[in-house]
Amino acid sequence: MKLLRTIALAASMAVAGLMAMPAGAQDAGPDIYRKALEGKRIVLVPMAMGFDLAQGWTAILQREVKAFGGVLETRDPNWSTEAGAQAITEVISSDPKPDVLVVMSFDLNSYSKLLKKAQEAGIYVLLIDNPANFKADAYLGSDWTQLGRLEAEAAIKGCGDNSSKKIGLVQGDQVNATSLFQYAGIMDVLDKHPDFKVVAKPDSNWDATTSRNVTTTMLQQNPDICAIIDFWDGDATGAAAAIRDAKLEDKVFLVTTGGGEKASCDKIADGTFGAVVMTNLGQESYNMVTMIKYLLQSGQKPGTASPYIYTLLHATTKENMRPDSCWDLKALQAMANE
Amino acid sequence: MPISPAHIRIDRFLVSKGNSSYRQALNQETIVLAVTALIFLAAAVGLPGFIAPENLVAIVRSVSVLGILALGMGIVIIGRGIDLSAVAIMAMSVAWYLQLLNDGMSDGLAFAYVLALVLAIGAVNGFLAAYAEVPAIFVTLASGSFVFGFVRSQVISQDAVPVPPGNWVEVFGGFRLLDIPVEVFVFAVLALLTAFFLRFTKWGRYVYYAGDNPVAARNIGIPVRPMMVLRYVLSAVIAFVAGLLTAASLHSINTRVVNSTLLYDIILVAVIGGIGLSGGKGGVRNVLVGAALIGIMLNAMTIIDIPLIYQNLIKSTILLFAVIADGVLNPRDEQTAQQGDI
After folding, report:
1. Averaged pLDDT for residues A120-125
2. Which end of chain B has fewer CB atoms < 10 Å from its terminal CB, N or C?
3. Full-model pTM
């Protein structure tokens, strides 16, 4: 009888088990994930849409946001702080409100109040690439001081011990955090190498023609400069032109920084740039995706925490360049449009 | 009162030059030239390497694109107009040209397309200003925005468009004669051509008449309207050349320049040199003086290593000084006031 009962129990358990199998393997995750993310509106406001970083971010975000059933919108301030502020104001008051605002700030302060307003309205704010005086729900991008340090180290290495040890800087401007922190980082390293000197540090205002003009003057005043650090690869083409014009390609090591699009690697390969300190765009974008997914499920109030999620930086040179050191915008966009 | 030799000299001067001419001898051009000379001398004495031939060449080169654009602007302003689309035409026409080349179109065909576009924009500017009688400031502001917006959104995908490797634009930019870069020669040739046009051709002289008094010019039979179209077409073509030179030197064109202060700098160079915004006055010499002042000032400040924000402050202070001096020495009278400044 006992045996019979056991067999019956076992059989019923087996049947129940078989029946329950789908129910037992049911993962609650996808449902929670879908409920939290589906239909969510993400708005990306970079400084402009027309440059490699912004287009790279958009391509990756587009693909990921679409995959979880959300909507990605972009705004193009086209390098105008006013247009950017207007876009953010409009986004905050739009109906329905966006759920996450991803913003690349122009400088330390311009957007601070606006972004605070966005958080008060219940919108998560992610700051990307350019730091600002504002407690965002996360900052994702480079540690610009560290970036400056890597540039200085690359310049010192490029110069070598038997050089003039004279370095020229082509700064961006005097308001953008990326320019100020880069400078601080460079000086940090140079303080530890007192034999290396900065002989000139003009601003390019991020413009290639200005960069060319100031570099030309710098090289005429100090023909024995061994390295130049230009604060952005967008205008470093100007510094490169000045070096080429002065026929100093073999003597001046040009260091710059950028998003690591294929064009940068091409310029490293042909010797125009000596070293480019690159941020890992893919990693940076996927960090954004992770934060968006996390925040939308966290249930926390916007502004609760403001972590810094720095992306690994790397000084790419001809020696350490690999086929995958740079990313290809066209390939990325093709992937996003699949 | 005994007449001193000095009095006689002044008197002769007045007689020979007509009324109020000792004032004209101290006009804006002279003042700016004097300021330029002073800065030049101070820099030559105080700054090591400033007077070196390479640096002087670098100064001319640094203002040659600005100067070329100011030549076009000068022609338009003398005819009592203004062209706010110059920078947009310069950047966007070349961006489109390079995009066509990068897409694999042949050089000649791409060039023909873009040149036709440039001529068309100039003609539209001129037509709207001359025949529809819309104020030039609005026409060109709108057409500049349109050209930028259209090319930026429909034709190119990024701010910067590279010159295809080995293209003639790249080769052209590398051209040197006696170590002098090609921009300097193009600037010189265009300055000579413009001066010749304004001074020695009939239509060039008409520009002054039309700028000084359009109604009178029309009454004596000058084709005022077609000539206005011509001026905007010339300005557009000159802008295209300036854009090609920029791309030649940097091996790419960055359309961000449209958002920069370049447009104001162009007007500044023309006006600071003494081309009055009320039209009918000035010439190529004024553009050269204005360009020299800006070039020397920026170069000296870069050598001293003054940060950009202070550079802008110093630049604007000197320019303000020149404008105030002009206002004091050449006060506006009823006639100039009625002409309507922009």
Report:
1. 92
2. N
3. 0.77
